[in-house]
Amino acid sequence: MLGNFVYSNPTRLYFGDNAQQHLADALRPFGRKVLLTYGSGSIKRNGVYADVTAALAAAGKEVVELPGVMPNPTVDKLCEGAEAARRHNVDFILAVGGGSTIDYAKAVSVAAWHKGDAWEDFWIAQRDPQPGARILPVGAVLTMAGTGSEMNGGAVITHSGRRLKIGKVFGENVMPRFAVLNPRYTFSLPCRQMVSGIFDTMSHIMEQYFSGSDDNTSDYLAEGLMRSVIAASRVAIQDPKDYEARSNIMWTATWALNTLIGKGKSQDWNVHMIGQAIGAHTDAPHGLTLSGISTAYYRHVLPHATDKFARFARVVWDIPAEGKTAGQLAEEGIDALAAWISEIGAATEIASLGVTPSMLDDIARSTLIMPGGYKRIDHEEVIAILRESL
Ligand code: NZQ
Ligand code: ZN
């Protein structure tokens, strides 16, 4: 295994049926005033809000509510949250929701007391908070599996006016202090969102897996996680209330992007960069922007890593290797990925997300190309991948 790294993850997880019973204790150490942030109200319909407010009361907290975090949270909403956190002088931020709400809480945590323009400094310039800067601690109650935001430092924010959707990966001081993961909380998700999260999980693993050529423990872990999410997805599509499948999806999603399987890997992330640009132009669900372009992207880079794609076919999809060249096997692996995208009902083409041919150049311009994968792509190649995905 090549590469030198530090591995540390400060997020304490409470996982399983009734995991919320730990919430009051988890909250206790973090001051008196809590900013409770959530989305458009699904938590009020599925009972999660009642559980959370009971725990906040049991822990003796004074609560300031900040609802209305939209999928793909915006800079304007970030400013509103930062101002509220400052005005009420909160000690802690509790995010209840999916990746958007948790990302948002992290963004507010660094922006609240930042002297300067948070969007320009953290997202455009990709700076880290100054040493000693006040960062509000964050906790999470997860209601949608997929992003891994519950155990990482990522926070993706969208500037609608500039058509930019940019992720900033913050350090341990911004990662959630704890996260409550009750798979049952995800049962009320609409199928489209469940599928979006499932594909997002698969994509996170592939983004890290499809890089490097050394024999790396991270790749073996990635293969196990991919096999798990594929198996669980097939059960969950048939029966969304299958606890075992939904719990495996939730746990896999967390491990797919909690920094472990990226260790010793250069990592690719261009599917995400293109997907985020599509999101900036269409506001489509994140995971579906990824499923829409993945097969075109991987067919594009396949000639530069045939052996790795052949291994993907063999180990992840159980495709027999006998009598085939590495190239044939590699193609069959991507065919299997494409078939699975259709099987689970994820987007197979970006036209279904509202992308039109006239948008391709602008979407490519919004794409921040990453250098870590098997092929360095340029603007024209991004357009070709988008066109292939229409
Ligand atoms: O608004 P609410 O009521 O919360 O409804 C949400 C929203 O409409 C709904 N939902 C969530 N849990 C539910 C539920 N509906 C019913 N029952 C439940 N239990 O689902 C919709 C989508 O939620 P959202 O949080 O937007 O989805 P997701 O978890 O996919 O998060 C997407 C955001 O995370 C970013 C994406 O770019 C996007 O902005 N990402 C964050 C990453 C990170 N922190 O590392 C990495 C990812 O690659 C991703 O980029
Ligand atoms: Zn993602």
Polypeptide structure, described:
The protein is 47% helix and 11% strand. It has helices at 23-27, 42-45, 48-58, 75-87, 99-111, 118-124, 191-209, 217-238, 243-256, 270-282, 286-301, 306-317, 326-344, 360-365, 379-389, and strands spanning 12-15, 33-38, 62-66, 92-97, 138-142, 154-159, 164-169, 178-181. Strands 1-8-5-4-2-3 form a six-stranded parallel beta sheet, sandwiched between helices. A two-stranded antiparallel ribbon has the order 6-7. The model has no long low-confidence stretch (mean pLDDT 97). It is globular. A hairpin with a 4-residue loop joins strand 6 (154-159) and strand 7. It is built from 15 helices and eight strands.
Q: For the report, how would you describe the main beta sheet?
A: 6 strands, parallel
Estimated structural class: alpha/beta
What is the percent of helical residues?
40-55%
Please count the beta strands (DSSP E, at least 2 residues each): 8
Strand order of the largest sheet: 1-8-5-4-2-3
Strand content: 5-15%
End-to-end distance, in Å?
38 Å
Mean pLDDT: 97
Order of helices and strands: EHEHHEHEHHEEEEHHHHHHHHH
Low-confidence stretches are none
Q: Count every helix, treating DSSP H or I runs of 4 or more residues as helices.
A: 15
